[in-house]
TrEMBL record:
Family listed: Belongs to the thioesterase family.
Organism of origin: Nonomuraea insulae
Pfam family, one: Thioesterase
Superkingdom, taxonomy of origin: Bacteria
Entry-linked Gene3D superfamilies: alpha/beta hydrolase
Protein's UniProt name: Thioesterase II family protein
Amino acid sequence: MRKPPWYLAFEPRPSARLHLYALPCAGGGPSAYRSWTRHLPPWVELRAVTLPGRPGRHREPAHTDCDTAARALAAELAGQSVPYVVFGHSMGAMLGYRMVRELESGGGRRPELLAVAAWPVRGAVVQPDPRADDERFAAALRALGGLPDEIAHDPGALARTLPVARADFTLCASYTYRAEPPLSVPVAAFCGTRDPVAPPESMAEWREHTADFRGLRVFDGDHFFVRDRVAEMTAILEMRAPGGADQAERAVQPRGATL
């Protein structure tokens, strides 16, 4: 039986010199990154990661343990031949971090940059509670901004969405911070000024968890600032270059991106 694809390239670029793997937030899928491709140079191929339980991999149970998910992702990337960068938003940032830890310990090819958005390295209070009933879970997810109106008001779409979101928030709750040596992989961090889950001061702590911190960029926005800042998120590529950390890192700015 053919193995389902684990990423989606909306615009395949066979001659790309760099692959950008993008990991979704809890309840999200590869479609969150569909618009990114047109903002990237032609030598970069965007590969939006499709986690189990999503369309295309709906026959596979969604992961509920972060270490299991990280090991599975690391196994997919271990044989990567083209240089690559990893970007993750919220849950995706956490999975990207644990995945890179797996690659470092297992000897697989590591990314040129780990870009983390909206997830503190020490973890976050998981809301909504995945143990809540559907009504309370959906209401809390909507309050966070993670449940669009078109899904919330469509019983069929809601029935398909909630099980995956519940599994994802269970996965987030499984994360336990570990005091480990700094990563050898460069790290860049991104956050929103009004994010209660990952405020700028907590995102700044990523500095202590890599030997090469490429800076923190702060955007005017909430936990989902990434949705409105697609063009500016190409700063990921700028922060990939050695020596860019001094220019990339900024204090919190109340308006716009710190570009």
